[in-house]
TrEMBL record:
A Pfam cross-reference name: Aldedh
Classification via SUPFAM superfamilies: ALDH-like
MF (Gene Ontology): aldehyde dehydrogenase [NAD(P)+] activity; succinate-semialdehyde dehydrogenase (NAD+) activity
InterPro entries, alphabetized: Ald_DH/histidinol_DH (IPR016161), Ald_DH_C (IPR016163), Ald_DH_CS_GLU (IPR029510), Ald_DH_N (IPR016162), Aldehyde_DH_dom (IPR015590), ALDH_GabD1-like (IPR044148), GABD/Sad-like (IPR047110)
Protein name: NAD-dependent succinate-semialdehyde dehydrogenase
């Protein structure tokens, strides 16, 4: 594994970075631990001052930060700027709310006075963050902001194809006033991952990534008895009921499936439409997808980015071919660079928006997460059948329900075996919305107080 910047649009390799040595890793752990011993005792106002300064830097230099997202992973300009803006909002959320989120809580306990038993939240130490490439800033900030505010320090192992984004995150906190070791970026080789987790200085591990990576990190965290959170893949169900606004549903469907070129864990991926409106939905989805414009992600008119790499495009090709071999049908809905008119792949990292139908029930196809602008479409007999199809998945990250009756849609949402459900839109996120899933989509929550308190010591203090 090498840490390399390769422009997904041009295919040009721009810069490589040496991986950290064993000695460099140990030095980083020592520096981070010593920083923690000081940082944990800093007044909360001083810790959040760093977050506030980081938010200001991101806001004032949003275009410069966004341009690196476009360069390293191919994110279109509008989506890159939007990611930076979300990071600003998260940082400012914790500036505003950390004091109340960490405030001691009085516990009413038999045999003690009303103010004698306190539940307090103390920091733990180094939090090891293993983060993916699809949202190179957001994935880091949503972990770092609450943990730094709480008094922990963060050691980052980012994805190998976004090394400059990782460096910018480290530079951001340094410029914001964080002392050395409070936030550390390491170009860590895989073989030293366990060495980091095993360190007595490391007290928690947060991973966002694939099931395979999650299984490895979870096993290592379990082996060394470290707290951990996992946010893994998803096969989010997008249910359209017979009373839904089908035009709006189709528009949200394309947006939800093709945002970030479909490389989103919580993207809508399985579109489950009741028979009454199935045909109308299909036609409207085709029409909406045909409006997408693929091209240079730095061009403001581009609305469909390339995938993060040629390797990623080849992976999607293989998955789609495998699903078709199982009996499904595929159609391509828009032209992209590097593809011929019949959908035969040529070169480059683009993959066209596609629609897969006639997926045989019970085949592995229904359990294949595709990280690209490929929609899997299912015809449900009725809403009960739609719920059954939605829950027939090993994943449980997010989901959507479309209906004119919001209260009924909420009832359907409660029956979906997933971590979060949105009504009449594809997905939702924000600094005040807990994020996480069930089943193979992971465990634990990030953002708001739940995420912050995953990695603090909730200590009971009793006055005798």
């Amino acid at each position: 594994m090498a840490y390399v910047t390769t422009n997904p649009y041009t295919g040009e390799t721009l810069k490589t970075f040496p991986m950290a040595t064993f000695e460099e890793v140990d030095t980083a752990l020592d520096v981070a631990h010593h920083a923690y011993e000081w940082w944990r005792d800093e007044p909360l106002t001083e810790r959040t001052k760093v977050l506030s300064a980081a938010a200001d830097i991101l806001e004032h230099e949003s275009k410069a930060f966004a341009s690196m997202l476009t360069l390293e992973m191919g994110k279109v300009t509008s989506e890159a700027v939007a990611e930076v803006n979300v990071c600003v909002a998260i940082l400012r959320y914790y500036v505003k709310h950390t004091e109340s989120l960490l405030a001691p809580k009085l516990l009413q306990t038999a045999g003690f006075g009303d103010t004698n038993v306190h539940l307090v939240n103390d920091p733990l130490g180094i939090i090891f963050a293993v983060e993916p490439w699809n949202f190179p800033y957001y994935q880091v900030i949503r972990v770092a902001a609450p943990q730094l505010a709480a008094g922990n320090v963060v050691l980052l192992k980012h994805a190998s194809n976004v090394p400059q984004c990782a460096a910018l995150m480290s530079e951001l906190f340094h410029r914001a006033g964080a002392p050395d070791g409070v936030f550390t970026n390491l170009y860590l080789p895989h073989e030293l991952t366990e060495h980091v987790i095993a360190s007595p200085y490391v007290r928690g591990v947060a991973l966002t990534g694939s099931e395979r990576a999650g299984a490895v990190i979870a096993s290592l965290a379990g082996k060394h008895l470290k707290k951990s959170t996992l946010e893994l893949g998803g096969m989010d169900a997008f249910i359209v009921l017979k009373d839904a606004d089908v035009a709006a549903a189709a528009e949200w469907a394309v947006r939800g499936r093709c945002r970030n070129a479909g490389q989103v864990c919580v993207a809508s991926k399985r579109f489950i439409v009741v028979d009454d409106v199935y045909d109308e939905f299909v036609e409207r989805y085709r029409a909406e997808a045909a409006k997408l414009v693929a091209g240079d992600p730095a061009d403001p008119t581009t609305t469909l980015a390339p995938l993060s790499s040629v390797h990623a495009r080849i992976q999607v090709e293989r998955q789609v071919a495998d699903i078709v071999a199982q009996g499904a049908s595929v159609e391509y809905l828009a032209e992209v660079p590097g593809w011929s008119a019949d959908g035969t792949p040529n070169e480059g990292a683009f993959y066209p928006p596609a629609l897969i139908t006639n997926i045989p029930e019970g085949t592995p196809a229904a359990r294949t997460e595709i990280f690209g602008p490929v929609a899997q479409l299912y015809r449900a007999k009725d809403e009960e059948d739609a719920i059954r199809i939605a829950n027939d998945s090993p994943y449980g990250l997010g989901g959507s329900v479309f209906s004119a009756d919001v209260h009924h849609a909420q009832e359907i949402a409660r029956r979906l075996d997933t971590g979060m459900v949105t009504i009449n839109r594809s997905s939702a996120s924000g600094p005040d919305i807990p994020f996480g899933g069930v089943k193979n989509s992971g465990y634990g929550r990030e953002l708001i107080d739940l995420g912050l308190k995953e990695f603090v010591n909730q200590k009971v203090v009793i006055n005798g």
